[in-house]
Amino acid sequence: MRKEVDRYVKRCRVCQVSKGMATNAGLYMPLHVPLHPWVDISMDFVLGLPRTQRGNDSIFVVVDRFSKMVHFIPCKKTTDAVNVARLFFRDVYRLHGLPSSIVSDRDTRFLSHFWHSLWKMVNTQLNFSSAYHPQTYGQTKVVNRSLGNLLRCLVGNHVKAWDQKLCQAEFAHNHDCNRSTRFSPLHVVYFAQPCGPLDLMTPRVSSSVPKKVQDFVAGLHDVHKAIHENLVCANSKYKQDADHKRRHVDFEEGDFVWAVLTKDRFPVGEYNKLSAKKVGPLEIVEKINSNAYRLKLPSHIRCSDVFNVKHLIPYHVDSFNDDLAMNSRTNFVYPGGMMEAQVLKNGLTCF
């Protein structure tokens, strides 16, 4: 009896739509480890800051995924894709050149036609996170939290002068030793640790014998190699810790699934606690990677069609459409035969 009830409820359409939320599906899948500084970068925005005298209320954050070096660029919330590109070329490109890949979220500025066309012209690959899944570019989110802590310590009571303290916050972040690379970002990029305020308080003894160019290049190469190995080891450790409570779930193109709709995916004013949390069944049209799938959404749902695997739940055929299940219920639960099964089909949706 219990098996029949479990099987019936598992295939019930009402239960599949109304019950259950995101799962622990999807193993940790780190991004590839770069080989050189400022080849692969990530970018994001920090919003909601007090407006300064210069009209800035946001920060454009650019992070190098190899050295963990950052650039904090003050901007406005209304800054469009054209001006974001100008900020990048003014403050990042002139120092480090063009990247080969950019990781970002699905901000409207990063999804614009201008942004795609610009980076396509310079052969830079754009990698976007799954919608409403910030773990994809978690490194940038960690930097944003660190930036908030630094600014709170620096601005004090002068909260509307935070843009004048960004240079100090940027130097402090880049001067500090990173836990993953075990080097400071400035050391990784420039193979030298610049003097900080504490270093200027004590006299430094300089060597009278300058290093040879060959030694400098060899040392820089050794540092980059050590950083790459440290990042690989760090990623392996993070993956082992993260996968401890996760499970692997795999779908193929053509499979049908239920998609969990988080609060952020609902249009403004349409979300309520009694709304159906899942939509479907939806067909998987593309498998982007093991943790991201593109779905064929109905026309009335206007949100990103890329879902993380933790927001996908396998679709089970409706109980009444499964002849085998219906016959089994008729024989076991309702021995009266097909007549009572038809009454059940027309008048009962679930136990």
Automatic annotation (TrEMBL):
Residues 33-193 form the Integrase catalytic domain. One of its GO terms (molecular function) is RNA-directed DNA polymerase activity. Pfam families: rve, SH3_Tf2-1. Gene3D superfamilies: Ribonuclease H-like superfamily/Ribonuclease H (3.30.420.10). It comes from the Eukaryota. Keywords: Nucleotidyltransferase, RNA-directed DNA polymerase, Transferase. This is Reverse transcriptase domain-containing protein. It comes from Tanacetum coccineum.
